[in-house]
Amino acid sequence: MDLLADVLAVGGVRGALGARMEGADPWALNWTGIPGAAFYALTTGSAWLTVPGHEPLRLLPGDVVLLPTGAGHTIGSTPGAKAPGCDAAAAAHARLTGDVLRFGNGEVQSHLLAATYSHDPAVSTQVLSQLPEIVHLPADPCGSCLDDTVRLLARELAHPQLATAVVLDRLVDILLIQFLRVWLARRPEEAKETWLGVLDDPMLSAALTKLHTDPARAWTTEQLAAELGVSRATLTRRFASTTGQAPGAYLTQWRMDLAARRLRDTTDTLDAIARSVGYTSAYAFSRAFSRSRGQSPGRYRLTARAAAEATDAYSTA
Q1: What is the pTM of this model?
Q2: How far apart are CA 62 and CA 43, in angstroms?
């Protein structure tokens, strides 16, 4: 099993390209209320990213930056410049037509690509939410697959063709995975403090692979440790230092994530869902789910479906 692919898939992480942007000095853009993560790739010129509580960050050609939790920010030609808010409708139109969003009235100095990433609110096991508020990767002088994907995105945006929307969505999803790969390779010490640290620890990677492959199994920490050939204390310590949880707590959270998706997206009975995530009865499952999510499975099914229908209606309006 590919753990990262599994967590991203179950977590419903999806990307959407904003548009190509041009900055004509002086220029600035303010972006708040982002429901997911925000991403920028600077292709030419320079820009300053200002996030409250952090020192302004200068971006140079080839730099990419991810704001995993969608922190409100300003990006522009000078640190902390006053700026208008992002026009989502204009960005969507630019994406469809291949136009460029231009900011400022002077000579164009900077070119950027912007994207956003959303996730499934039903799933609490998320990669992006555990990352630092700002993840900055300076340009790689030797080039990388990440650079190649940014160039492909820019080309597809500049020259829309048949099924461009599909191509862009796929490329943006690829872009995130490549970004995470590069960050894990370049900054392993930072990654250790996040879920991605699991991927750099063979023992933890093996442990999570077993839990994700067979979440319905009646796992205990002792059984899991025995299969890995380590002591219970070692497994518990390493698990907690990286995920912040004991193995049992992580497994319960993952089971509840899987169950929440099935409650919302299927008509499966409580008995079927309970068995699929390791509970011998609907009653035992209902108690565990209520403790985890603060409401019964039946109530959750109703509210989650209503919220999903409202979101679908809004997105198609």
Answers
A1: 0.87
A2: 6
246, 237 Cβ separation under 8 angstroms: no
State how far the Cα of 61 lies from the Cα of 43, in Å rounded to an integer: 5
Give CA angle at 163 (162, 169), nearest 5°: 145
Q: Please name the helix (run of DSSP H) or strand (run of DSSP E) that holds residue 176, with its range, or none.
A: helix 164-186
Question: Using alpha carbons only, what angle is made at residue 96 by residues 28 and 155, rounded to the nearest 5 degrees?
Answer: 80
CA 133 to chain centre: 12
Cβ-proximal residues to 34 (8 Å cutoff; 6+ apart), any chain: 67, 70, 71, 72, 116
How far apart CA 150 and CA 182 sit, in angstroms, is 14
- Residue located via tokens 């730099």: 63
Q: How far is CA 156 from CA 19, 73, 172, 215, in A?
A: 11, 27, 11, 40
E strand intervals along 68-143: 73-76, 100-103, 108-118, 135-137
The DSSP 8-state label assigned to residue 307 in this structure reads H
Evaluate whether 76 touches 83 at the Cβ level (below 8 Å).
yes
Q: What is the DSSP string of 260-273?
A: HHHHHH----HHHH
Is residue 12 within 8 A of residue 59, CB to CB? The reply is no
Mean pLDDT for each consecutive 10-residue tract of the chain (317 residues)? Answer: 93 84 85 85 92 94 93 88 62 65 83 90 92 92 82 82 84 92 89 88 95 97 96 95 92 98 96 97 97 96 91 58
Helices within 187-246 (DSSP H only): 188-191, 202-213, 221-228, 232-243
